[in-house]
Amino acid sequence: MRFIKRIFITLLVLILVLVGVSYLLPGKAELSRSITINAPASAIFPYVNSMQETEKWSPWLTRDPETQLSYSGPEAGVGNTLNWASEHPQVGTGSQEIVESVPDQTVKTALDFGPMGSASASFDLTPEGEQTQVTWGFESDLGMNPMSRWMGLMMDKWVGGDYERGLTNLKALVEGQG
């Protein structure tokens, strides 16, 4: 009986330590990836300023070709919204809406993953001579949920590779147009 009690107390202490440490972890998950594309910002901007155009280079749609997509709002710019639904756990269900758009410079979006939370993403286009550096960023407030904070530590590992693949796809698409 003492042995079981010790195991129970040890597990309880371990859980309390993990919860306590979680509040020392960052309250936001942030990541970004960049790529240089051999094209002016004006050639890249249409592909990041329209959810319909992101279909052409998205790193996630190849994971589940059966993903159901629907769009609302204008064809591009602020208010352009994508809703997606997939049974694939790495695609899931959610929506993304463009909330800010500055031609040939930046696009900001609001992401809603339903019960999984919300986040924001951005595309920043920085001219570099004849080329443009494209930076794709992501930020999510993790709140006070201890599990979310621990998961936030893994966000770069989980999503970073997808961002790199997406930017590589975007580069190939834009440079192939020229």
From TrEMBL:
Cross-referenced InterPro entries: Polyketide_cyclase/dehydratase, START-like_dom_sf
SUPFAM superfamilies membership: Bet v1-like
Superkingdom of the source species: Bacteria
Pfam family, one: Polyketide_cyc2
CDD domains cross-referenced by the UniProt entry: SRPBCC_1
Full protein name: Polyketide cyclase / dehydrase and lipid transport
Source organism of this protein record: Ruegeria atlantica
